[in-house]
Amino acid sequence: MGNKRFSSKRIHSYSFTTLFSYTVLTIWAITTIYPFVWVLINSFRVKGQIRSDSFSIPWPWLDSFTLDNYSTAFERSNVFRAYGNSLIISIVVTLFVSLFAGFAAYGLVRYSFKGKEILHSFIIASMMFPVFSTIIPVYRMEVHWGIASTGKLPLSLLSTILPQIAGNLSFAIVVLMGFIQSIPIDLEESAFIDGCNVFQIYFRIILPVAKPSFATVAIFTFLWSYNDLFTQMFFLRRPKERTITLLLNEINSQAGVNYGLMAAAVVIVVVPVLIVYVLLQKNIIKGMVAGAIKG
Amino acid sequence: MSSTIYKNKLPLIIFLVPALILMTIFLYYPFIMNIFNSFSDISGLGTAAKGLNDPWFKNYIRLFQDPNMITAVKNTMILMLSTIIFQVGIALLLAIFVDSIKVGSQFFRTVYFFPLVISATALGLLFNLVFLYDGGMLNQILQKFFGFTQNIDWKDENHFMLTMLSPVMWQYVGFYFVIIVTGLSNIPQEIFEAASLDGAGFWKRTYYISLPMIRNVLITCLILAITGALKVFDLPWVMMGSGIPMDESWLTGTYMYNQTFLRSDVDYGSTIAVVIVILGVVISQIANKIFKEKEY
Hints:
The complex is a heterodimer. Chain A is mainly alpha-helical. Chain A folds into 2 domains: about 1-70, no CATH class; about 70-295, MetI-like (MetI-like fold, Orthogonal Bundle), CATH 1.10.3720.10. In chain A, about 75% of the residues lie in helices and about 0% in strands. Chain A is globular. By secondary structure, chain B is an all-alpha fold. Chain B has a single domain (about 50-290), classed as MetI-like fold (Orthogonal Bundle). Chain B has helices at about 10-35, 60-65, 65-100, 105-115, 120-130, 135-145, 160-185, 190-195, 200-215, 215-230, 235-240, 250-260, 265-290.
């Protein structure tokens, strides 16, 4: 975007304003990128040298280069188990949010029934509840049911998954409703004449057509769940239940002066997300904004 | 929808029920219970309430007498104000510049948005290293390039606010940036062309056309900034832990967690959560009243 917008731009393309724009934009880009680069290079630096000289690059052939920080990180804490826990939670949450939100959005868009408006505002209003205001009763309820704070890993994961699903549903329903509304009903009608029932229509027509917005919802839900600290701090309290964010929180309070370890931990968490982001960035940006504006 | 497919309402139950049950049990019921809890006497997360408080509004009186709560509300207000000024302000500036360039706008979008997909916990750790007293990135830069001779303690009483707020600002600029850029790209080009023909330069076009045209987008950002500021938790928690220095850096969210979990004062924690909701509703209503959305 932005190109060929108006002709005068072409004439003044090397003007002072353009130069100024690029300067400001570049400076902000550097403040965004540099801290990550700094952490990355220092995660490979020998202990102690971070404090004195953190700007040079510890090339693999120099004395300052080491992989110790990473081996310590993997030795001291069970990084793979934390990844495993995080992935289980985030994948299950994403699947159920996509399934239930898709159903609800389809039902709300295509059917007309009494109380539809009220139901719609019921969903919108719940987007305003901060997690702070629901977490304590949810925790107490789940303790009462015997799924929270039992010390059993699957139950603990479940106790985190349930409120996370509920917390993402309203956003997902709103985004998916917006898309399903724009699908012409003719497709569904011809499928109906061919003998499909509503569920076949949903899975064979709506789902494939609405794939991009499902992707947006799924990515957003996944990231939110993966990055969440607050809910997980409530429900996952034992070492074996730790997820990647909890592990980081732990390293943060225990690493003391082992800055190399802290740097390595940041890199371990950021790199997978960076890869996903670069691959899917268009959907991610769209989804974040759609979710926020409609909320 | 008049289609005959959707005359039979039976499948609707299957479509709506799972989502509605989950939302009722995990959002609406707890939301209402939380208000009840704030009037009850609960001394442990897993334990039953011992009945109502005496007097039942005890916690609400305590709010006003609790210096840490007053600090938390004050800090949250400062956070909210700086969110509006710096996050939305910087985002607006960057959006206007990106909208005016031809090459690389996609690159800048990708870069600016990146901090948002990283967990705030990881960013907290990262910024702990940046703001480290002995050998942190910032202190090293200041000493190497700006001739500072002493380390600055970024978490002491003079600097903690800057240290706590700047990472939050930094992370969310990209968010408002993308919203504003989308708003700018929706402005019809003809208006700009006409203005250019009349001799309006870049800054004039921005001031007289872009800004008024994205007024509603900016109001959306304002409301998002207000509600967003009340939700901030991870970054300050990882960086400031238990209100360092000396209980001065509490925010409503971190203080709520502290009271609920570390002090086991569950009913007071619930009360703080109620306050968070009230603040969000009241302030965004006021903002809505002041900056009424206009239809163009």
